[in-house]
Amino acid sequence: MLESGVDLRYIQELLGHQSSKMTEIYTHVSSTSINKIKNSLDDIID
């Protein structure tokens, strides 16, 4: 859900967690998603 763009707070509510910290423990982002993040410094270095 997180990788599909669902806000972490909605996931927290769905899971019934009182704390967002607890939700963060159970949510993981795949390396594929991490690799899609554009680093703004790449434009400066190129």
UniProtKB/TrEMBL annotation:
Would I find Transcription regulation among this entry's keywords?
no
GO BP terms in the entry = DNA integration; DNA recombination
Q: Name one Pfam family in it.
A: Phage_integrase
Which branch of life, at top level? Bacteria
Q: Which GO terms describe its molecular function?
A: DNA binding
| Every Tyr recombinase domain range | 1-39
- Annotated keywords: DNA recombination
Q: Where are the transmembrane segments?
A: none
Tell me what this protein is called.
Tyrosine-type recombinase/integrase
